[in-house]
Write a structure and sequence with these properties.
Elements lengths: L25 H16 L4 E5 L3 H12 L4 E6 L6 H14 L3 E4 L3 H10 L9 H20 L4 E3 L16 E4 L4 E4 L7 H11 L58 E2 L9
Parallel strand pairs: 1-2, 1-4, 2-3, 4-6
Antiparallel strand pairs: 5-6, 5-7
The structure holds iron/sulfur cluster.
The site of iron/sulfur cluster has 13 residues, from helix 5.
């Protein structure tokens, strides 16, 4: 099983939106996003956790545009698609800002690879969860330790499981403030802004991919599938249509809403 050949057949692929004019209310949502990022930057040290997704590229661009004191990092799981690695290098060059590489612990990774094969992630949920824990969650936890806040590209429109994502919340799982400045952005907002500002994004978005993670766990989707249906698709069952089963564990903890210092409407 691999990302390139699974279940597409002759059915049309997903195609990302092309939007020539600003969606209604876009200017207000953009202003709110920039305001939320500025508030996040005051929670020093604050970091942007980037997966090199289209959302994270928008945030990386806005952080650079407003010269905010928010360091960006990305988890190099060792399983990222070549297109993601290429984008990583290109984005750093274009904006003159680093995307710090965060890698799994060497000994944990050696333990993982010595006890389960690469294909074990398709065989049991426990094997998949262990891989995500060692390659993603544990390095993320280490990177967030000692930080006051982190910024993510979560949006309510991405899935039913993210439908109530707030602009700002206390993240009890990692013990710091969590900001989601794109929480209210639609797909149209996102792609309109990417094209308008010529923000670099993964080449995979033009090859049927709507959501991109590690190469073994991401596939293109048909035009009628949920945008996150291409993530860990072999585990998805009854909730495939809503995307509620397609999370790796990094964002599943329920947030505690905090409206003390933001004007966000969440
Ligand atoms: S997304 Fe897949 S390859 Fe990446 S860490 Fe999780 S199980 Fe491993």
């Amino acid at each position: 099983m691999n990302a390139a050949t699974n279940v597409i057949g002759t059915t049309p692929w997903y195609a990302r939106p092309r939007v020539d004019t600003a969606p209604a209310g876009f200017d207000q949502r953009l202003a709110q996003t920039r305001e939320t990022l500025a508030i996040a930057a005051k929670h020093a040290p604050c970091v942007l956790a980037s997966s090199l997704s289209v959302e994270d590229m928008v945030l990386f661009y806005l952080v650079a545009l407003d010269a905010l004191a928010i360091e960006t990092f990305a988890l190099d799981t060792g399983k990222l698609p070549a297109a993601t690695l290429n984008l990583w290098a290109d984005a750093q060059t274009k904006y003159g800002r680093a995307i710090v590489r965060v890698a799994p612990d060497t000994r944990d990774l050696a333990q993982l690879t010595s006890t389960q094969s690469d294909s074990a992630i398709y065989e049991t949920k426990a094997a998949r969860a262990l891989c995500c824990d060692i390659r993603k969650t544990a390095p993320l936890r280490n990177q967030l330790a000692g930080k006051a806040a982190w910024v993510t590209g979560l949006r309510r429109a991405q899935s039913a499981g993210r439908a109530s994502v707030p602009q700002q919340a206390w993240d009890a799982a990692f013990g710091l403030e969590k900001f989601n400045p794109l929480a209210e952005w639609t797909d149209e907002d996102l792609w309109y802004f990417v094209d308008r500002e010529e923000i670099p994004v993964s080449a995979l978005y033009d090859k049927g991919y709507a959501s991109i993670g590690c190469d073994p766990c991401t596939r293109p989707i048909r035009y009628d599938e949920h945008p996150r249906a291409g993530r860990w698709w072999w585990e998805a069952t009854a909730d495939t249509a809503t995307g509620t089963s397609t999370e790796c564990g990094i964002h599943v903890a329920a947030p505690t809403l905090n409206t003390n210092d933001t004007k966000a409407t969440a």
